[in-house]
Amino acid sequence: MKPSISMIAALLFGCATLHAAPIPRDRLPSNCPSPSEATQFYRLFQNDIEHYLYTTSSDVSTRALDAGYEFDGVAARVFQTAQASTVPLHHVFNRATQDHFYTTDVRARDAVLAGTPSTLDEGVAAHVFTRRICGGVPLYRLYNHGTGAHFYTTDEGEREKALMDDGYDNPAIAGFVLAK
């Protein structure tokens, strides 16, 4: 069966939008929140146990630094409160493994909470997009079976290094965020 012209056009358009540059503010759909409302999504790293924590909160950052985490930069820009076209990014913490898990999928959050008695629902970490709109970029989620840690990044090079060199796999997209 020959592919139709519309199928080929759809595939080409889909591939082109995967690596598209951020949309200029004056061309964003009207349901996009203002990027000036976004805040930094900090990444902290606990070297002893090789785990990452992501937060918009300076209080959480301070407590994490006091608990032995190190500041590891800004992972992305996100919204602290619900905005047009955003959904909650849920945070679940596993006390036994010290792992932080983030998802927009309530069923995934609930499954993780039900799967281990040592997990805690830490609430909403931020608000993000569920698809590539409003200039959003993928927030990749990777998992390391050796350390039991999840790792999140918007950087393609960092994602590839984690997959190739650092023992991470199971690549997924946790949500779409604004670039740092």
TrEMBL record:
Keywords: Signal. InterPro entries: DUF5648. Pfam families: DUF5648. Coiled coil: none annotated. Residues 1-20 form the signal peptide. Residues 40-177 form the DUF5648 domain. It comes from the Eukaryota. This is DUF5648 domain-containing protein. It comes from Mycena belliarum.
